[in-house]
Amino acid sequence: MTSVYEANIMFMPILLRVVKYKVMIVEFFVQKSVVKGENVLENKYVKVEVLLPEVYIEKVRDALNAIGVLRVGNYDHVISYSAVKGYWRPLEGATPFNVPVGEISFGTECKMEFNCLYQNIKDVENTIRSVHPYEEPVINVVSLLN
After folding, report:
1. Which residues 6+ apart lie within 8 Å of 112 measured at CB?
2. First to last CA, the chain
């Protein structure tokens, strides 16, 4: 009999090519497998990447540290960030942070990165959204192999 884990390994590549909302499919398989008592998410840590203006790094960092997710061993406030360049255009109905609706904008912002437990990801996303200045913040959650 095929386990849920083996089925995930066999069918996940097919589903990821076919389904537009990949994260939802991964979440479905993880949740269903956990309910059945199988550990398909052996890697319990994820890397979180957040795009934001540099002036908000400390505010977001402090909020995340307050919920205890920026700790590594005997250190806290553990993040890194780098400058990145990007393009964006707010569409009709958007309430942009600092650019006009309909115009393509270009600018420099920062990518803040940190690792945390997967089990904390909902709290992490809610905390980021509560202090982040963008209407639609970019928050990437990447599974780690270590």
Report:
1. 49, 50, 51, 52, 57, 60, 61, 79, 80, 81
2. 29
Q: Over the stretch 79-138, which tens digit does the pLDDT of each residue have?
A: 999 999 999 999 999 988 888 999 999 999 999 999 999 999 999 999 999 999 999 999
pTM: 0.69
How far, in Å, are 3, 55, 102, 110 from residue 114 at the CA level? Answer: 33, 18, 33, 13
Phi then psi for residue 31, to 5 deg, are: -65, -45
Q: With beta carbons less than 8 A apart as the criterion, state whether 51 and 84 touch.
A: yes
Angle 142-16-87 (CA atoms, 0-180°, nearest 5)? 55
Closest-CA residue to 87 (of 99, 95, 71, 73) = 99
